[in-house]
Amino acid sequence: MTGSADEELGDLPPSAKLVYKVLDYNGPLTQKKIVEESMLSARTVRYALERLDEIGVVAEDVYFADARQNLYEIKESESGSETEPALSD
Predict the structure, then answer these.
(1) Cβ count near 28 (within 10 Å)
(2) What kind and span of H or E run contains 58?
(3) Is the whole model's pTM more than 0.90, yes or no?
(4) What's the order of all strands across the beta sheet hosting 58-62?
(5) Which of 65, 64, 83, 85 has the alpha carbon at shortest distance from 74?
(6) In the predicted model, what is the mean pLDDT of residues 56-77?
(7) Where in the chain are the domains?
(8) pLDDT tens, residue by residue, 25-39
């Protein structure tokens, strides 16, 4: 990361901010559930997750109910609480 997560989240496209808020509100979700919750296309959600991963605010894990899918969630900060980057434009 080149800057703080707060600054970098502010530079993301609106779709990535929406995906962040969906994960923040609902907790860990598969990409398919994020598509349903956000009403964005699968391709847009995939791109948004890539961007969120680039700045290090989202974690990817194995979804044990269906190993073909991944589970995405907001990474916790070192202090143990979830990261809460600003969503300002």
Answers:
(1) 13
(2) strand 58-62
(3) no
(4) 29-30, 70-74, 58-62
(5) 83
(6) 91
(7) 5-74
(8) 999 999 999 999 999
